[in-house]
């Protein structure tokens, strides 16, 4: 049954002259979930977000929010709010006035809109900075203000366009936790565009992997990571090897490859040369050349590796369990 606040894309298409940026995609974003549109540059994820926001015109198809068709409504009339990548704060007005701006446009009186803006600043821990100008804030603080400004309209769906890309790695992880906390507390839908696999896996209830204007695969982070359905998803989501087995291709996670010094009994077997060893703290990656099977990666725990270190140039034998090989669509 459709929830009144589910957002549905129905054969939604975006063309720029002869170029098809988004190709008749269908997807339902369930109300109250955190969804990530994930894919490389040019895959159509930002165009999809901008069509949902009303900042790009839909070429064909529809966008439904519950029972309402919002395809042709202006941005302010949709029940969605957008947080832009560059935050787009007004530089010459205070933080509190930035947050209150949309209420000012609606004719809400100054005491009421300031009170509501302060409530939103409290939600994002920015009350002490209410009277500062945006350029007196750090990048992370500006992001919190932009978030409060988007949320003051009480949207059913919050749209986030690569919101963490401008932040340093430490702050990115901190803000990831903040976004997830806010989404849970507000119980509204967040739709977040990213090209970072780690970000999508950490945040999302639902990952939608896009490629060439189409949806390659959608599902929970665990489903998409553990059982990619296409070679593109297996390679883009990371941590997988794509192997040709007979006429078919299969994906095997790098940590599911069993690296042996000697050919042994049982399991599929490949011979490979160790090209490089990459220490990553809790794990060690081996870059392997498996001849006709291609370039592969095996991930070992640091304990397993350092118990019996493998030198660059060594020959190793690779095995895996049949249940760890996921068939990929042609």
Structure, described:
By secondary structure, this protein is of the alpha+beta class. The protein folds into 2 domains: 220 residues, 3-Layer(aba) Sandwich (Rossmann fold), CATH 3.40.50.300; 89 residues, Beta Barrel (OB fold (Dihydrolipoamide Acetyltransferase, E2P)). The protein contains 9 helices and 18 strands. The strands form 4 sheets. A 6-stranded mixed sheet has the order 6-7-8-3-9-10, sandwiched between helices. Strands 13-17-14-15-16 form a 5-stranded antiparallel sheet. Strand 7, helix 5 and strand 8 form a beta-alpha-beta unit. Helix 2 crosses helix 3, helix 2 runs parallel beside helix 4 and helix 3 packs across helix 4. The longest helix is centred in the middle third of the chain and has 18 residues. The radius of gyration is 24 Å and the shape is elongated. The two termini are 33 Å apart. The relative contact order is 0.12.
Tell me the CATH superfamily of the largest domain: P-loop containing nucleotide triphosphate hydrolases
**Percent of residues in helical segments?**
25-40%
Multimeric organization:
single chain
In one word, what is the shape?
Answer: elongated
Largest sheet: 6 strands, mixed
What number is the mean pLDDT? 92
The helix/strand order is EEEHEEEHHHEHEHEEHHEEEEEEHEE
Please report which band the strand proportion falls in: under 5%, 5-15%, 15-25%, 25-35%, 35-45% or over 45%. Answer: 25-35%
Number of domains: 2
Poorly predicted sequence stretches spanning 5 or more consecutive residues: none
Structural class: alpha+beta
Question: What do we call the CATH topology of the largest domain?
Answer: Rossmann fold
For the termini, the CA-CA separation is: 33 Å
CATH class designation of the largest domain: Alpha Beta
Q: State the strand order across the main sheet.
A: 6-7-8-3-9-10
Number of helices: 9
């Amino acid at each position: 049954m459709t929830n009144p606040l589910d957002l549905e894309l129905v054969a939604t298409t975006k063309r720029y002259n002869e170029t098809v940026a988004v190709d008749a995609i269908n997807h339902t974003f369930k109300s109250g979930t955190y969804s990530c549109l994930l894919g490389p540059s040019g895959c159509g994820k930002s165009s999809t977000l901008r069509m949902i926001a009303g900042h790009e015109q839909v070429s064909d198809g529809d966008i439904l929010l519950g029972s309402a068709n919002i395809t042709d409504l202006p941005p302010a009339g949709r029940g969605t709010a957008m947080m832009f990548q560059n935050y787009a704060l007004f530089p010459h007005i205070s933080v509190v006035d930035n947050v209150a701006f949309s209420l000012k446009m609606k004719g809400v009186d100054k005491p009421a809109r300031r009170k509501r803006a302060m409530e939103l600043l409290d939600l994002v821990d920015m009350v002490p900075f209410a009277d500062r100008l945006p350029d007196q804030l750090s990048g992370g603080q500006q992001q919190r203000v932009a978030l409060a400004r988007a949320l003051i309209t009480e949207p059913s769906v919050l749209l986030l366009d690569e919101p963490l890309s401008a932040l340093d790695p430490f702050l990115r992880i901190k803000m990831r936790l903040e976004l997830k906390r806010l989404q849970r507390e507000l119980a509204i839908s967040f739709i977040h565009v990213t090209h970072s696999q780690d970000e999508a896996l950490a945040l999302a209830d639902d990952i939608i992997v896009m490629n060439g204007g189409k949806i390659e695969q959608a599902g929970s982070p665990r489903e998409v990571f553990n059982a990619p359905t296409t070679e593109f998803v297996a390679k883009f989501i990371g941590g997988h090897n794509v192997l040709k087995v007979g006429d078919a291709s299969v994906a095997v996670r790098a940590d599911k490859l069993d690296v042996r010094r000697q050919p042994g009994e049982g399991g599929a077997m490949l011979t490979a040369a160790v090209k490089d060893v990459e220490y990553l703290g809790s794990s060690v990656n081996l870059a392997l050349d498996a001849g006709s099977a291609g370039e592969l990666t095996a991930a070992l725990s640091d304990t397993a590796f350092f118990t019996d270190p493998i030198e660059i140039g060594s020959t190793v034998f690779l095995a895996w369990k049949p249940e760890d090989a996921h068939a990929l669509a042609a």
